[in-house]
Amino acid sequence: MYNLSIKSHRLPIQNKLIGLSALIFLVLIAFLIFFYHSFSTSLENEKKAQSKHLTQSALGVIQYFHDLSLSSELSDEDAKKYAMDALKYALYGDNGYFWIMGLEGEILLQPYKPELIGMSLLDWQYSDGTYPFRNIDKEIRKSGGWVNYYWSKNDSLEQFPKIGYVTYFEPWEWLVGTGIYLDDMEKNVFWTVAKASGFLLFGFVVFIFAAIIIIHYFVHKLSEQSVKDSLTKLYTKRFLEEVIPGMLENEKRHNRAIAAIFLDIDHFKKVNDTYGHNCGDKVLEQVAAVMMECTRTGDYCIRYGGEEFVIIGPCDDNKNVIAIAERIRQQVSELVFTHDDKEFTITLSAGIALHEHSQTSFDETLIDADMKLYEAKERGRNRVMI
């Protein structure tokens, strides 16, 4: 028989675990997409709220200096100058600043482009030749609120989309505003969300892998318990039923037959009756140990029931199969057991059958092997028949 690792045939419960892992991964990806969308929308709203809050704070600064002019502590002109100076240097972030313009569109404060002061924003022209601010009448400008426009960054001539919040200071007829460059906001939101998603993904992946490893461990243990005989540590008949379909398919691809060796301990009932079931269990354990020692790692040793055993594995040479069965038979016959200072030995008989893939089912092969075992019993036991 050839070495065939048990890993080449997954049990149904293992396939279900793999499917569950894939499902968990897909749910995780869906959650991250939802998280990214929700978190990015939340951050965008927060950025806009921040812009509005900053503009209202700037209005508070202007109101402070206006109050000084009303109390005659400052002249109206000085109050305006100090207010503009205060906002001129109130820069924030990478490109954040405040600007002021009059109701007629004249620019009163532009920290990054002081050369524009005194010019009318109504004359501001986009690269496509349009004058966007001319479409906004005085009453709309006076009411304030959110505005969308294009503006260059610092010393750059390139124009970028921008959204800003504008508020109106009626005593001085000033429009005060600050804006957010949309590309800066999107970049900031992207990296913020990406980092948060990265940490979240890492945490989830660690958790999922840890959970899968733990689940796999317990599933493996439970699977072993469900398909391994607790006494002999051999596989059970249930395992045979689960592994055979995959094994048949695998060996059919390699054009190899599958050998089945049916083994039975001779006169085992007499052992139980004479020496007791505890002694019988020790016999079964020793026979199982011999089977595992004489077969290779990939050959399946199965306790079929009671004192009956089955060994299955791929085969293309009958002599190899017979040699394994004979080796087991010989070594079992050499075992010496002791009970109440009395020694006894046992023998076993074996029947061999080969499953050709033209046969309808593997059950027929097992029946053939069982018939050969019966023939070995009829011919005097302690022998191998094929």
Structure explained in plain terms:
The chain is built from nine helices and twelve strands. 52% of the residues lie in helices and 19% in strands. It has two domains: 1-227, Beta-Lactamase (2-Layer Sandwich), CATH 3.30.450.20; 230-385, Alpha-Beta Plaits (2-Layer Sandwich), CATH 3.30.70.270. The strands form three sheets. Strands 2-1-5-4-3 form a five-stranded antiparallel beta sheet. A five-stranded mixed beta sheet has the order 7-8-6-11-12, with helices on both faces. Strands 9-10 form a two-stranded antiparallel sheet. The longest helix is centred in the first third of the chain and has 59 residues, at 12-70. It has helices at 12-70, 76-88, 138-143, 182-227, 237-253, 268-275, 277-294, 318-333, 362-378; strands at 98-102, 107-109, 145-152, 159-169, 174-181, 257-265, 300-305, 308-315, 337-339, 342-344, 348-355, 384-385. By secondary structure, the protein is α+β, with helices and mostly antiparallel strands. Residues 1-10 have low confidence and may be disordered.
